[in-house]
Amino acid sequence: ARKFTDKHEWISVENGIGTVGISNFAQEALGDVVYCSLPEIGTKLSKHDEFGALESVKAASELYSPLSGEVTEVNAALADNPGLVNKSCYQDG
Amino acid sequence: MVLQSSLKNCLQLSCILRTPKAGFRSTTSGSLIIQSISNDVYQNLAVEDWIHDHMNLENRQVLFLWRNSPAVVIGRHQNPWQECNLKLMRQKNIKLARRRSGGGTVYHDLGNINLTFFTTRKKYERMENLKLVVKALKALRPQLDVHVTDRYDILLDRQYKISGTAAKLGRTTAYHHCTLLCNADKFVLSSVLKSPYKGLKSNATPSVPASVKNLFEEDPSLTWKMLLDAIAEEYATQHQIDHHITLINPADETALPGINNKAKELQSWEWVYGKTPKFSVSTCFNMVHKDSVLDVKVDMDVKHGRIEVCHINLPEQWLPPALCSELVKSLTGSKFCPNETTTLATTLLRVCPQDDELHSRWNLLCENMVMLM
User: Fold this and answer.
1) Which of B101, B169, B203 sits opposite A79 (nearest CB)?
2) Where in chain B is the domain with CATH 3.30.930.10?
3) Do A59 and B104 make contact, defined as CB atoms within 8 angstroms?
4) Contact at 8 Å (CB) between B176 and B129?
5) CA of A35, closest CA in chain B: separation in Å?
6) Residue B24 has pLDDT above 70, yes or no
7) For chain B, where do the domains classified as CATH 3.30.390.50 start and end?
8) Number of domains within chain A
9) pLDDT of residue A1
10) Which family does it belong to (chain A) (predicted)?
11) Contacts of residue A35 in chain B, CB cutoff 8 Å?
């Protein structure tokens, strides 16, 4: 099940692994994402910690962790293709 | 008198800042106009961070006015090697700062004014802010042909960029800041914003170059102070507050607790250079030594500002292979930085025999390596 924060991040949990993204509302509001700044694998985060940022049209929008835990994987496709966040915010982005 | 006045203003600000959410009773919006007494880019960026982190903007907005002594300011996700001439900046003592907002690279000096509009995230509205600036400029000089583009630039005479914009969106607060060219040094601006570094490959956000002009060139009777006052007056009118500018001292830890740590972080190598997105350098250079010209090919991967992978292709036996591999080994993991590289090269040379020819070749190679940084 996908749960949403009041800041338009979403999280779905399976077998103790949570996957985090931003909502369609958020990606539309942001505009074309040109850069994704994401944490290193192994980074330990607490709920509400700032873990990265998305940049679009000269605005850097902070990303906040909806939960506490350790980063086990980062969507590497976003490095070369940050627009995936707009095109497919629930799947490939 | 001036000292007393600014001290009084600073105290007023700290009172306002400490007032709890429900406590500030006022018939007006309670918005504030503040101006920094410092020209230090790191201190001023720290003030932005501080306001963003500590001020409650539910019932008020803030306009922050600041100017910096010569500095190049890159956006959050940019690569300084791609954006500016770091060598020239070191020679001229021009600082490099990385801001927390997005966008491209700009040059600041005392002939440029910076405006930061703080609001809640919901009330974030760049176009409105820029229209306010244009309104103020036109009120001051009705004949000025200035307008806002859909890239959030302000153009003079439909051609010249006089203002660029960037923004940061936090959890609950947002800020939009922009520059305004009053009487900046355009020669220095164009020379420092031209990168001499070749062979860089990166997904860092690039700048969009533009022709710029100072408002002073259009109308020599204009000063930065007049422009600043006009903007403050328009802001005061629109926010229904007194046209009163509160001065703040960014070094004042009492008024702004924690600010010195913020300034320190903004100046740190880890933030300025270390936050550069991963990039690669793939380039070659010629070295002229005595009567021969040598081709050297260099390939490096730089992550967090440090050399992750390093390959140097030299003509065989021009330098002892063992020494070359020591150089590559030492460079790997070290900062992509001229000082660090020079130190490391000097250290390695110490364990070599006192051979003039060897030393001169080594120095030539290392000087060229340093030129890449």
Assistant:
1) B203
2) 32-273
3) no
4) yes
5) 7
6) no
7) 279-372
8) 1
9) 81
10) Belongs to the GcvH family.
11) 77, 102, 203-205, 277
Q: Please give the sequence-ordered ranges of beta strands (E in DSSP) within B157-264, or none if there are none.
A: 160-163, 165-169, 173-181, 200-202, 245-248
Residue A93 belongs to a domain: no
Q: Chains A and B: how many Cβ contacts under 8 Å? A: 57
CATH label, B32-273, candidates 3.90.105.20, 3.40.50.2020, 3.30.930.10, 3.30.1490.100: 3.30.930.10
Q: Do A60 and B77 touch (CB under 8 A)?
A: yes
In this structure, is residue A45 part of a structural domain? Answer: yes
Could you tell me which of B100, B101, B98, B108 has the C-alpha nearest to residue B268?
B98
Which residues on A lie below 8 Å from B277 (Cβ)? 35, 37
Distance (Å, whole) CA B189 – CA B107: 6
Phi, psi of A79 (to 5 degrees): -65, -45
Enter the DSSP assignment of B335: B
Average pLDDT over residues B29-56: 94
The whole domain housing A81 covers: 2-88
Q: How far apart are the first and last CA of chain B?
A: 49
- Å between B305 CA and nearest CA of chain A: 15
Across the interface, of A37, A59, A64, the residue whose CB is closest to B168 is A59
Q: How far is B6 from chain A (nearest CA, A)?
A: 33
Q: Are A5 and A77 in contact, with CB atoms under 8 Å apart? A: no
Q: What is the per-residue pLDDT for A2? A: 86
Query: Does a structural domain hold residue A64?
Result: yes
Query: B232 in helix, strand or coil?
Result: helix
Q: Give the CA angle between residues A79, A84, A88 to the nearest 5°.
A: 150
Spell B269-282 as b/e; 16+ CB within 10 A means b. eebbbebbbbbbbe
CA nearest to B162, candidates B117, B211, B201: B211
Residues from chain A that touch B175, judged by Cβ atoms under 8 A, are none
What band does B264 get if pLDDT is binned at 50, 70 and 90?
A: very high
Q: Which of B104, B130, B131, B125 is nearest to B115 (CA)?
A: B130
Kindly write down the DSSP assignment for every residue of A44-92, as one continuous string: EE-TT-EEEEEEETTEEEEEE-SS-EE-----THHHH-TTHHHH-TTTT
Level-2 CATH architecture, domain B279-372 = 2-Layer Sandwich (3.30)
pLDDT band at B317 (very low <50, low <70, confident <90, very high): confident
User: Residue B184 corresponds to which tokens in the numbers above?
Assistant: 């900046």
ipTM of the complex: 0.91
